[in-house]
Design goal:
The structure is a single chain. The protein has about 180 residues and is an all-alpha fold. The protein is built from six helices and no strands. The longest helix has about 40 residues.
Length: about 180
């Protein structure tokens, strides 16, 4: 009898842990559009820096002053520095693009999962995780009591969590969504 109780307790802990992880993932999903917008602005700034570095390197190459006594000239050093910055900026831009792609995949996967929910549950999830609304506001919006809204949110999170595999990494995330059949 004691072994059965331990197994039930273990299942409840796993279930709560899974629900917590799903809620964390939904919070990331909810902030995805803001995150992507911020990263796109960062990419635009990097592109400006890359363009400026290219301009510096290009202008510096036009000055063909010969090197003095075997040492590199200030122009040559400027070109090398500009090329180094371009490489660094491009590497950073690639990382950002990878992060944005991962976040878009996450958002699309969660959006697809929300389509499987009843509309009222999907609306509660959107209001809570995408719009950051409190339980009182959500209850007024969907015309349910706060306790009913919280119960529906828990049901929705449980339904969503059935389709998520938390075992693997996905481009910067410590979890991976796998839509299971």
């Amino acid at each position: 009898m004691g072994e059965i109780l331990r197994q039930v307790e273990t299942l409840e802990c796993v279930s709560k842990e899974r629900i917590d992880k799903t809620r964390d993932l939904l919070a990331i999903w909810g902030r995805s559009l803001v995150y992507i917008y911020e990263k796109e602005r960062e990419l635009a700034s990097l592109q400006e820096a890359i363009d400026e570095a290219y301009d510096t390197a290009g202008v510096s190459r036009l000055d063909l002053a010969p090197a003095r006594s075997g040492k590199s000239s200030p122009v040559e050093r400027a070109v090398v520095l500009a090329q180094k910055r371009i490489a660094e900026y491009n590497a950073h831009a690639a990382v950002i693009q990878s992060e944005v792609s991962a976040r878009l995949r996450l958002k699309e996967a969660i959006d697809e999962l929300l389509l499987m929910l009843k509309p009222n549950k999907a609306e509660i999830i959107r209001l809570k995780y995408m719009h950051g609304q409190n339980w009182e506001y959500i209850a007024l919006t969907v015309n349910y009591s706060e306790s009913r809204v919280q119960h529906l949110e828990l049901e929705a999170v449980r339904e969503i969590s059935r389709y998520i595999n938390f075992g693997e990494k996905i481009a910067g995330f410590s979890r991976k969504i796998v839509l299971q059949p």
